[in-house]
Input
Amino acid sequence: MTALPPLSPETTLSQVLQSYPGAQRALFARYHIGGCSSCAFSPSETLAQLCQRNENLDVQEVIAHIQDSHQGDATLQISPADFVELRKITPDLAILDVRTREEHEAVTLPGARLMTQELVQEAFSAWDKNAPLILYDHTGSRSLDAVAYFIGHGFTNARCLAGGIDAYSQQVDPSLPRYKVEIEA
Output
């Protein structure tokens, strides 16, 4: 794992989210910051400014929470190389694509199914919750939320593909087309 840049009170939220993609989820879960329009933050806002306007939170505590949450996120991920190995030993591996239908139809991992509400309900009611389950998105950030949701519903071996389909196409299968989504940062 590569070393992450240190965080300081002067680090902007844009810089935080670039290095720690799960930071917004972590801030919302503990402090109710950044999850909705009433508690939103600006990308140019610093951690010190964010903490000051949110009941003078201790900025070092917030930094520690972001870093600890990032380490926890790492345990929920599987690298593209390890994913390839898992597929070799688990031919019926369940793979869910959490991207949009348009992205799924444009490029997808072999054997992956588009995650729909109906498929989620099927999984919750009929799938083996101890069997490996891999979720992926474009760059690996949204799938962290999805895997946490599945783990919260009892899926003990759910993981998300680190870096998403983009990392997979770079590291494993360059024949898969890469793309950019305009709304992504």
Q: What stands out?
A: The mean pLDDT is 92.
